[in-house]
Design a protein that fits this description.
The protein is an alpha/beta fold. It has two domains: about 250 residues, Spore Coat Polysaccharide Biosynthesis Protein SpsA, Chain A (Alpha-Beta Complex), CATH 3.90.550.10; about 45 residues. It contains eleven helices and seven strands. Strands 3-2-1-4-6-5-7 form a seven-stranded mixed beta sheet, sandwiched between helices. Helix 2 links the parallel strand 2 and strand 3. Helix 5 packs parallel to helix 8. The longest helix has about 50 residues. It is globular and about 55 Å long.
């Protein structure tokens, strides 16, 4: 929960069996996420077993594709703030609070993986992927005169319910270049957005797309052609602009619309929720340990009592 708004994270999964459990628990441990939706997109055998018991809600999308999986997740949540992410270990729940903090000012927050200081050792962000994503992002920034962009392919981002309501009818791509279409529709709808750096870590396992140079090359050209199609008007549709959809048009900042929670109070609330979740997960193990100790104590007492009469017998 963030300032009274429900927060959901959508994890599309195909080949993340070995990392999805840790990813779900990591995002829940922030104390800020109310719901995690795992969209099983014909995932590897054993994925459902890994998700079970984590608190996440698993749903299924048989139509293959990254975009299809995310659209399924979007249509199955009523959250006010929706975060797209990956359960492959590359992103951290630590960055959730950054996305939420910026959501107080803009309805859409995109992540970027190209900031050198946030790229972890072992992350799949070599020169080709880093500069390729940067170049396509800068092309988009130039052609559409947008806010600063530096990563066309970052899959961790936040969208408000209001922003998604506007662009959802126009999201038609079911494949890996769904992410750029989200950005382009946000631009075409004149929805305010900002881009902030995300921690980017080594992936658990190999990506079905960026793990192959030629697949990544093909995806890059798909992104470029998609940008040019939007710029040249080949994807012309009637759209409701953000200013027309917002009533009143002037956004009211979070701290002006209601009594803002102080930073200290927010930190305290997050800590309490995290501790409560940890206590619940440890309850069974603690109870089991206590019962074991009592059983061992009772066994030792009975043994001592049975030994007293033998010691008390005086042979004289």
């Amino acid at each position: 929960m963030w300032h009274g708004k429900k927060v959901a994270v959508i994890f599309p999964t195909y080949n993340e069996k070995d990392s999805i459990r840790a990813a779900v628990l990591n995002f829940f441990q922030t104390g800020l996420v109310d719901e995690i939706i795992v969209v099983n997109n014909n995932a590897a055998a054993g994925t459902s077993e890994e998700v079970a018991g984590t608190g996440a809600r698993e749903i299924f999308e048989s139509k293959q594709g990254y975009g299809n999986a995310l659209l399924c997740g979007i249509d199955n949540t009523d959250a006010d703030l929706i975060i797209f992410s990956e359960p492959d270990g590359t992103f951290s729940g630590h960055d959730v609070i950054k996305l939420l903090a910026y959501s107080d000012d803009v309805p859409v927050v995109f992540g970027t993986r190209t900031t050198r200081e946030f790229i972890w050792q072992g992350a799949n962000m070599g020169k080709f992927l880093r500069w390729g994503n940067w170049a396509v992002a800068k092309l988009t920034e130039l052609l559409f005169n947008t806010s600063m962009q530096s990563d066309m392919g970052c899959t961790q981002r936040l969208l408000s319910r209001e922003a998604l309501r506007l662009i959802r009818p126009h999201l038609t791509i079911g494949g890996s270049h769904f992410g750029p279409q989200v950005l382009l529709e946000v631009i075409e709808h004149r929805i305010p957005f900002v881009e902030i750096p995300m921690n980017y870590r080594a992936r658990v396992g190999e990506s079905s797309v960026t793990g192959s140079f030629w697949k990544a090359w093909k995806l890059g050209w798909r992104m470029i052609f998609l940008v040019l199609e939007y710029r040249c008007g080949f994807v012309a549709r009637e759209r409701t602009r953000w200013t027309a959809a917002s009533s009143p048009a002037i956004r009211i900042r979070q701290e002006e619309s209601h009594d803002a929670m102080s930073l200290a109070a927010l930190v305290s609330a997050v800590q309490q929720r995290s501790l409560a979740r940890a206590d619940m997960s440890d309850a069974r193990s603690t109870t089991h340990a206590t019962e074991s100790e009592l059983a061992q104590s009772g066994h030792g007492q009975n043994k001592a009592q049975s030994a007293v009469p033998r010691a008390a017998v005086d042979p004289t």
